[in-house]
Amino acid sequence: MKFLKKVVLSLALCILLVILSYYFLDKPVALFVAQHNLPDYPIFEWISRIANVILIIATLCIIILSTKNILRPLNRLQKQLFTCSLAIIVAVFFRIFFGSLFYRYWVRAGVDSNPTFINDQAYGFTLTHAGSHGAFPSGHTAMTFCAMTFIWILLPKWRPLAILLCLLQIIGLIAMNYHFVSDIIGGAFLGIVCALFAEKTFTKY
């Protein structure tokens, strides 16, 4: 019960931060990035893809560990790794679900064929493109924060690395104008919650 109460309070805080960012941060940050041509720097493109590597690793872990479990039961570490990998896939599912439920215009062109903020001054959420994958919440942020939350819980000595990877992912996505700041906030919350629920389920069984 205490856990669910914390999740609800965290959700309320997340919503507040998203609203504040939506009205006061998103546009100025996106315009600053565009005016200073930050997407032209390859380093930001590289670090924006941290989540891609995490997703590949998670998918391989599920395939390999599922196969191994047929032959021999998984040990505790392997079960934790399997749980983490599943949590990442669940985070991706919810990102697609929420992104399709209410479409949010992307920051710039290249993500889909719909209008964007930088190119067309299209800003906000709409039901017009419902079914397409909008910008909110950030799936890359969700995957990275989900994986790093597990590291934070299970491997305390690696916490500095977890923080670093989360920060790099955020910097990459914002510097490439792939996402607004509020997309990042929503994605971070989604990833952390998926990880915490998965970890709670694992410790129960």
Structure description:
The protein has 205 residues and is mainly α. The chain is built from nine helices and two strands; from the N terminus they run αααααβαβααα. The chain has a two-stranded antiparallel ribbon. The two termini are 18 Å apart.
Helices and strands in order, then pairings?
Layout: H1 2-24, H2 26-35, H3 42-48, H4 50-71, H5 76-101, E1 103-104, H6 117-120, E2 125-126, H7 139-154, H8 159-175, H9 181-204
Antiparallel strand pairs: 1-2
Give the distance, in angstroms, between the N- and C-terminal Cα atoms: 18 Å
Total number of beta strands: 2
- The rounded Rg comes to 18 Å
Please identify the structural class as seen in this structure. Answer: mainly alpha
Helicity, as a percent range = over 70%
Mean pLDDT: 91
Q: What composes the largest sheet?
A: 2 strands, antiparallel
Question: Residue ranges: pLDDT <50 for 5 or more in a row?
Answer: none
> Tally the helices: what do you get?
9
Give, in spatial order, the strands making up the sheet with the most strands: 1-2
* Molecular shape: globular
Binned strand content: under 5%
H/E element string? HHHHHEHEHHH
